[in-house]
Write a structure and sequence with these properties.
It is a single chain. With 358 residues, the chain is α/β, with parallel strands linked by helices. The strands form 3 sheets. It has a 6-stranded antiparallel beta sheet. It is built from 11 helices and 15 strands.
Amino acid sequence: MRLTRLQARHVRILEDVRIAPDPGLNIIEGANASGKTSLLEAIHILALGRSFRTRKTREVVNREADALLVFGEGKENEFSHRLGVKKSNREKTEIHVDGQRAKGVSALAALLPLLVITPESHALISGGPNQRRALVDWGVFHVERPFHRHWLTYERALRQRNALLKQGAGNASLTVWEREMTSAGNEITAQRARYVETLLPRVEQHLESLLGDLEVEIALKTGWGSEPLDEALRAAREKDERFGYTTVGPHRAELQIRIEGRPASEVVSRGQQKLMVMALRLAQLEVFRAATGRSAVLLIDDLPAELDRERRAVLLAQLSQMDLQIFVTTTEAALIGNQAWPSSKVFHVEHGRVSSRS
Protein backbone atom coordinates (compact mmCIF):
# COMPACT_ATOMS: atom_id res chain seq x y z
CA MET A 1 0.00 0.00 0.00
CA ARG A 2 1.21 3.51 -0.82
CA LEU A 3 0.41 6.40 1.47
CA THR A 4 -1.64 9.14 -0.16
CA ARG A 5 -2.16 11.19 2.97
CA LEU A 6 -0.34 11.48 6.29
CA GLN A 7 -1.17 13.47 9.41
CA ALA A 8 1.07 13.51 12.48
CA ARG A 9 0.30 15.40 15.69
CA HIS A 10 2.62 15.77 18.68
CA VAL A 11 5.26 13.34 17.38
CA ARG A 12 8.30 14.86 19.08
CA ILE A 13 8.47 18.46 17.73
CA LEU A 14 5.91 17.89 14.97
CA GLU A 15 2.82 19.81 16.08
CA ASP A 16 0.27 19.12 13.34
CA VAL A 17 1.84 18.00 10.08
CA ARG A 18 -0.26 17.11 7.03
CA ILE A 19 1.28 15.98 3.76
CA ALA A 20 0.20 14.21 0.57
CA PRO A 21 3.16 11.95 -0.29
CA ASP A 22 4.23 11.07 -3.80
CA PRO A 23 3.65 7.42 -4.75
CA GLY A 24 7.35 7.14 -5.65
CA LEU A 25 10.19 9.19 -4.20
CA ASN A 26 9.72 11.57 -1.27
CA ILE A 27 12.75 13.63 -0.26
CA ILE A 28 12.57 15.12 3.23
CA GLU A 29 15.21 17.82 3.65
CA GLY A 30 16.09 19.95 6.62
CA ALA A 31 18.79 20.91 9.05
CA ASN A 32 19.79 18.62 11.87
CA ALA A 33 17.19 18.55 14.69
CA SER A 34 14.58 20.15 12.41
CA GLY A 35 12.17 17.21 12.76
CA LYS A 36 12.76 15.37 9.50
CA THR A 37 13.55 12.06 11.21
CA SER A 38 10.44 12.54 13.35
CA LEU A 39 8.40 12.48 10.15
CA LEU A 40 9.85 9.05 9.37
CA GLU A 41 9.05 8.01 12.94
CA ALA A 42 5.43 8.99 12.39
CA ILE A 43 5.21 6.74 9.31
CA HIS A 44 6.86 3.90 11.24
CA ILE A 45 4.34 4.31 14.06
CA LEU A 46 1.53 4.13 11.52
CA ALA A 47 2.89 0.85 10.12
CA LEU A 48 4.15 -0.87 13.27
CA GLY A 49 2.63 0.96 16.21
CA ARG A 50 6.00 2.13 17.56
CA SER A 51 9.02 4.29 16.83
CA PHE A 52 12.20 2.85 15.33
CA ARG A 53 14.30 5.05 17.62
CA THR A 54 12.92 4.08 21.04
CA ARG A 55 10.32 1.89 22.70
CA LYS A 56 9.58 4.53 25.35
CA THR A 57 6.40 6.37 24.42
CA ARG A 58 7.23 9.34 26.63
CA GLU A 59 10.28 10.07 24.47
CA VAL A 60 8.18 10.29 21.30
CA VAL A 61 5.16 12.24 22.59
CA ASN A 62 5.65 16.00 22.55
CA ARG A 63 6.42 17.24 26.06
CA GLU A 64 3.48 19.64 25.95
CA ALA A 65 0.96 16.95 24.96
CA ASP A 66 -0.57 13.88 26.59
CA ALA A 67 -0.68 11.75 23.43
CA LEU A 68 0.43 11.59 19.84
CA LEU A 69 -1.77 10.79 16.86
CA VAL A 70 -0.78 9.49 13.44
CA PHE A 71 -3.36 9.06 10.71
CA GLY A 72 -2.84 7.85 7.19
CA GLU A 73 -4.75 6.98 4.07
CA GLY A 74 -3.42 4.71 1.37
CA LYS A 75 -4.29 2.88 -1.83
CA GLU A 76 -3.35 -0.47 -3.26
CA ASN A 77 -4.80 -1.31 -6.64
CA GLU A 78 -8.49 -0.39 -6.37
CA PHE A 79 -8.61 -0.64 -2.57
CA SER A 80 -8.31 2.27 -0.12
CA HIS A 81 -7.57 2.01 3.59
CA ARG A 82 -7.45 4.32 6.59
CA LEU A 83 -5.06 3.70 9.47
CA GLY A 84 -4.78 5.49 12.79
CA VAL A 85 -2.57 5.14 15.86
CA LYS A 86 -2.85 6.98 19.16
CA LYS A 87 -0.08 6.59 21.72
CA SER A 88 -0.35 8.01 25.20
CA ASN A 89 1.99 8.23 28.16
CA ARG A 90 -0.71 6.79 30.39
CA GLU A 91 -3.03 4.64 28.29
CA LYS A 92 -2.71 1.62 26.05
CA THR A 93 -1.96 2.28 22.38
CA GLU A 94 -5.09 2.60 20.26
CA ILE A 95 -5.06 1.22 16.72
CA HIS A 96 -7.80 1.78 14.16
CA VAL A 97 -8.09 0.26 10.69
CA ASP A 98 -10.82 1.49 8.35
CA GLY A 99 -12.72 2.98 11.26
CA GLN A 100 -12.64 -0.17 13.39
CA ARG A 101 -10.61 -0.75 16.55
CA ALA A 102 -7.86 -3.31 15.86
CA LYS A 103 -6.49 -5.74 18.44
CA GLY A 104 -2.82 -5.49 17.55
CA VAL A 105 -0.12 -4.06 15.32
CA SER A 106 -0.26 -7.02 12.94
CA ALA A 107 -3.34 -5.42 11.37
CA LEU A 108 -1.24 -2.35 10.53
CA ALA A 109 1.78 -4.32 9.34
CA ALA A 110 -0.32 -6.44 7.00
CA LEU A 111 -1.72 -3.36 5.23
CA LEU A 112 1.37 -1.14 5.28
CA PRO A 113 4.49 -3.31 4.78
CA LEU A 114 7.44 -1.13 5.72
CA LEU A 115 11.21 -1.37 6.13
CA VAL A 116 13.54 1.23 7.57
CA ILE A 117 17.27 1.92 7.13
CA THR A 118 18.98 4.34 9.52
CA PRO A 119 22.58 5.38 10.23
CA GLU A 120 22.41 2.83 13.09
CA SER A 121 21.30 -0.02 10.82
CA HIS A 122 24.89 -1.30 10.66
CA ALA A 123 24.04 -2.88 14.04
CA LEU A 124 22.06 -5.45 12.07
CA ILE A 125 25.47 -6.79 10.98
CA SER A 126 27.53 -5.99 14.08
CA GLY A 127 24.95 -6.57 16.80
CA GLY A 128 23.38 -9.65 18.35
CA PRO A 129 21.13 -12.17 16.60
CA ASN A 130 17.81 -10.52 17.54
CA GLN A 131 17.87 -7.97 14.71
CA ARG A 132 18.89 -10.49 12.07
CA ARG A 133 16.18 -12.88 13.26
CA ALA A 134 13.67 -10.03 13.03
CA LEU A 135 14.86 -9.33 9.48
CA VAL A 136 14.00 -12.90 8.47
CA ASP A 137 10.68 -12.85 10.32
CA TRP A 138 9.59 -9.62 8.61
CA GLY A 139 9.88 -11.39 5.29
CA VAL A 140 8.27 -14.62 6.42
CA PHE A 141 5.36 -12.73 8.00
CA HIS A 142 4.57 -11.06 4.70
CA VAL A 143 5.03 -14.01 2.33
CA GLU A 144 4.00 -17.02 4.45
CA ARG A 145 0.42 -16.51 5.58
CA PRO A 146 0.36 -19.06 8.48
CA PHE A 147 3.60 -17.78 10.03
CA HIS A 148 2.03 -15.28 12.43
CA ARG A 149 -0.38 -17.91 13.79
CA HIS A 150 2.41 -20.44 14.32
CA TRP A 151 4.60 -17.81 15.98
CA LEU A 152 1.85 -16.83 18.44
CA THR A 153 1.33 -20.49 19.30
CA TYR A 154 5.05 -21.03 19.80
CA GLU A 155 5.47 -17.92 21.96
CA ARG A 156 2.57 -18.93 24.21
CA ALA A 157 4.03 -22.41 24.71
CA LEU A 158 7.50 -20.93 25.28
CA ARG A 159 6.18 -18.63 28.01
CA GLN A 160 4.45 -21.56 29.73
CA ARG A 161 7.57 -23.73 29.57
CA ASN A 162 9.73 -20.92 30.97
CA ALA A 163 7.27 -20.42 33.84
CA LEU A 164 7.35 -24.14 34.66
CA LEU A 165 11.16 -24.16 34.54
CA LYS A 166 11.30 -21.38 37.12
CA GLN A 167 8.83 -23.28 39.31
CA GLY A 168 10.85 -26.49 39.07
CA ALA A 169 7.91 -28.42 37.62
CA GLY A 170 8.28 -32.06 36.64
CA ASN A 171 8.95 -33.48 33.20
CA ALA A 172 5.32 -34.44 32.66
CA SER A 173 4.22 -30.79 32.81
CA LEU A 174 7.03 -29.72 30.50
CA THR A 175 6.14 -32.39 27.94
CA VAL A 176 2.74 -30.84 27.24
CA TRP A 177 4.20 -27.48 26.22
CA GLU A 178 7.22 -28.98 24.48
CA ARG A 179 4.86 -30.89 22.21
CA GLU A 180 3.16 -27.62 21.24
CA MET A 181 6.50 -25.85 20.82
CA THR A 182 7.73 -28.63 18.55
CA SER A 183 4.69 -28.59 16.28
CA ALA A 184 4.68 -24.81 15.84
CA GLY A 185 8.49 -24.52 15.91
CA ASN A 186 8.98 -26.97 13.06
CA GLU A 187 6.54 -24.97 10.92
CA ILE A 188 8.30 -21.69 11.76
CA THR A 189 11.70 -23.15 10.92
CA ALA A 190 10.54 -24.61 7.61
CA GLN A 191 9.01 -21.27 6.59
CA ARG A 192 12.16 -19.37 7.56
CA ALA A 193 14.32 -21.79 5.57
CA ARG A 194 12.16 -21.38 2.44
CA TYR A 195 12.30 -17.62 2.75
CA VAL A 196 16.09 -17.43 3.20
CA GLU A 197 16.58 -19.80 0.25
CA THR A 198 14.56 -17.42 -1.93
CA LEU A 199 16.26 -14.34 -0.50
CA LEU A 200 19.92 -15.28 -0.88
CA PRO A 201 20.31 -15.08 -4.69
CA ARG A 202 18.89 -11.55 -4.67
CA VAL A 203 21.12 -10.54 -1.76
CA GLU A 204 24.16 -11.78 -3.69
CA GLN A 205 23.20 -9.69 -6.73
CA HIS A 206 22.88 -6.52 -4.68
CA LEU A 207 26.07 -7.22 -2.72
CA GLU A 208 27.98 -7.56 -5.98
CA SER A 209 26.74 -4.22 -7.30
CA LEU A 210 27.27 -2.38 -4.00
CA LEU A 211 30.41 -4.06 -2.63
CA GLY A 212 32.10 -5.63 -5.63
CA ASP A 213 33.70 -9.06 -5.32
CA LEU A 214 33.49 -9.34 -1.54
CA GLU A 215 32.50 -12.94 -0.79
CA VAL A 216 29.80 -12.97 1.87
CA GLU A 217 28.49 -16.19 3.42
CA ILE A 218 24.94 -16.10 4.78
CA ALA A 219 23.36 -19.08 6.54
CA LEU A 220 20.29 -19.64 8.69
CA LYS A 221 20.91 -21.49 11.97
CA THR A 222 17.78 -23.06 13.44
CA GLY A 223 18.45 -22.35 17.13
CA TRP A 224 19.27 -25.92 18.12
CA GLY A 225 21.46 -28.81 16.91
CA SER A 226 20.93 -31.44 14.24
CA GLU A 227 18.55 -33.55 16.34
CA PRO A 228 14.73 -33.14 16.13
CA LEU A 229 13.38 -30.19 18.13
CA ASP A 230 11.48 -32.33 20.65
CA GLU A 231 14.66 -34.24 21.46
CA ALA A 232 16.64 -31.01 21.78
CA LEU A 233 14.11 -29.64 24.26
CA ARG A 234 14.19 -32.80 26.36
CA ALA A 235 17.98 -32.90 26.35
CA ALA A 236 18.15 -29.26 27.49
CA ARG A 237 15.76 -29.63 30.44
CA GLU A 238 18.41 -29.89 33.15
CA LYS A 239 20.37 -26.93 31.85
CA ASP A 240 17.20 -24.91 31.25
CA GLU A 241 16.05 -25.52 34.83
CA ARG A 242 19.34 -24.07 36.10
CA PHE A 243 18.98 -20.97 33.91
CA GLY A 244 15.22 -20.64 34.35
CA TYR A 245 14.50 -20.24 30.64
CA THR A 246 14.54 -22.18 27.37
CA THR A 247 17.96 -22.15 25.70
CA VAL A 248 17.11 -23.99 22.46
CA GLY A 249 14.45 -23.53 19.80
CA PRO A 250 13.41 -21.23 16.96
CA HIS A 251 13.48 -18.21 19.29
CA ARG A 252 17.27 -18.69 19.32
CA ALA A 253 17.63 -18.86 15.54
CA GLU A 254 20.38 -16.85 13.89
CA LEU A 255 21.07 -15.50 10.42
CA GLN A 256 24.85 -15.77 10.32
CA ILE A 257 26.68 -13.32 8.04
CA ARG A 258 30.34 -14.17 7.64
CA ILE A 259 33.29 -13.26 5.43
CA GLU A 260 36.18 -15.71 5.09
CA GLY A 261 34.77 -17.70 7.99
CA ARG A 262 34.68 -14.73 10.36
CA PRO A 263 31.73 -12.58 11.47
CA ALA A 264 31.27 -9.81 8.91
CA SER A 265 31.51 -7.14 11.62
CA GLU A 266 35.14 -8.16 12.24
CA VAL A 267 36.12 -7.83 8.58
CA VAL A 268 34.34 -4.87 6.98
CA SER A 269 34.03 -1.19 7.86
CA ARG A 270 30.89 0.43 9.23
CA GLY A 271 30.20 1.96 5.82
CA GLN A 272 30.45 -1.48 4.21
CA GLN A 273 28.16 -2.88 6.89
CA LYS A 274 25.60 -0.27 5.94
CA LEU A 275 25.83 -1.32 2.29
CA MET A 276 25.34 -4.94 3.35
CA VAL A 277 22.17 -3.89 5.16
CA MET A 278 21.05 -2.07 2.01
CA ALA A 279 21.59 -5.25 -0.01
CA LEU A 280 19.58 -7.31 2.46
CA ARG A 281 16.71 -4.82 2.55
CA LEU A 282 16.54 -4.40 -1.24
CA ALA A 283 16.48 -8.17 -1.65
CA GLN A 284 13.67 -8.39 0.89
CA LEU A 285 11.62 -5.81 -0.97
CA GLU A 286 12.10 -7.69 -4.24
CA VAL A 287 11.05 -11.01 -2.71
CA PHE A 288 8.01 -9.34 -1.16
CA ARG A 289 6.97 -7.88 -4.51
CA ALA A 290 7.53 -11.15 -6.37
CA ALA A 291 5.64 -13.22 -3.79
CA THR A 292 2.66 -10.94 -3.20
CA GLY A 293 2.41 -8.60 -6.18
CA ARG A 294 2.16 -5.74 -3.69
CA SER A 295 4.25 -2.62 -3.14
CA ALA A 296 5.99 -1.70 0.10
CA VAL A 297 7.25 1.45 1.79
CA LEU A 298 10.94 2.09 2.44
CA LEU A 299 12.23 4.68 4.91
CA ILE A 300 15.87 5.75 4.68
CA ASP A 301 17.12 8.16 7.33
CA ASP A 302 20.12 10.26 6.25
CA LEU A 303 20.91 8.36 3.07
CA PRO A 304 24.15 10.29 2.28
CA ALA A 305 25.71 9.33 5.63
CA GLU A 306 28.86 7.23 5.15
CA LEU A 307 28.17 6.70 1.42
CA ASP A 308 30.37 8.36 -1.17
CA ARG A 309 28.86 9.85 -4.31
CA GLU A 310 29.54 6.75 -6.43
CA ARG A 311 27.95 4.28 -4.01
CA ARG A 312 25.03 6.64 -3.47
CA ALA A 313 24.44 6.87 -7.21
CA VAL A 314 24.50 3.07 -7.60
CA LEU A 315 22.03 2.63 -4.74
CA LEU A 316 19.67 5.33 -5.99
CA ALA A 317 19.73 3.82 -9.49
CA GLN A 318 18.69 0.46 -8.06
CA LEU A 319 15.95 2.02 -5.97
CA SER A 320 14.54 3.88 -8.97
CA GLN A 321 13.99 0.55 -10.74
CA MET A 322 11.95 -0.90 -7.88
CA ASP A 323 8.21 -0.52 -7.43
CA LEU A 324 8.38 1.29 -4.09
CA GLN A 325 7.22 4.32 -2.19
CA ILE A 326 10.35 5.76 -0.62
CA PHE A 327 10.86 8.43 2.05
CA VAL A 328 14.46 9.69 2.31
CA THR A 329 15.84 12.29 4.71
CA THR A 330 18.82 14.49 3.93
CA THR A 331 20.23 17.87 4.83
CA GLU A 332 20.19 18.86 1.15
CA ALA A 333 17.75 17.61 -1.47
CA ALA A 334 20.45 18.04 -4.12
CA LEU A 335 22.32 15.07 -2.61
CA ILE A 336 19.45 12.80 -3.68
CA GLY A 337 19.05 12.62 -7.43
CA ASN A 338 15.41 12.39 -8.48
CA GLN A 339 15.79 12.45 -12.26
CA ALA A 340 15.33 8.68 -12.65
CA TRP A 341 11.97 8.62 -10.85
CA PRO A 342 8.74 9.09 -12.84
CA SER A 343 7.54 11.40 -10.05
CA SER A 344 8.85 12.81 -6.80
CA LYS A 345 8.21 15.40 -4.12
CA VAL A 346 10.46 17.41 -1.84
CA PHE A 347 9.32 18.30 1.67
CA HIS A 348 11.21 20.91 3.65
CA VAL A 349 11.19 20.57 7.44
CA GLU A 350 12.02 23.46 9.73
CA HIS A 351 11.33 23.69 13.48
CA GLY A 352 8.78 20.86 13.28
CA ARG A 353 6.84 22.37 10.39
CA VAL A 354 6.70 20.76 6.97
CA SER A 355 6.16 22.45 3.62
CA SER A 356 6.13 20.99 0.12
CA ARG A 357 8.31 22.51 -2.58
CA SER A 358 7.93 19.92 -5.36
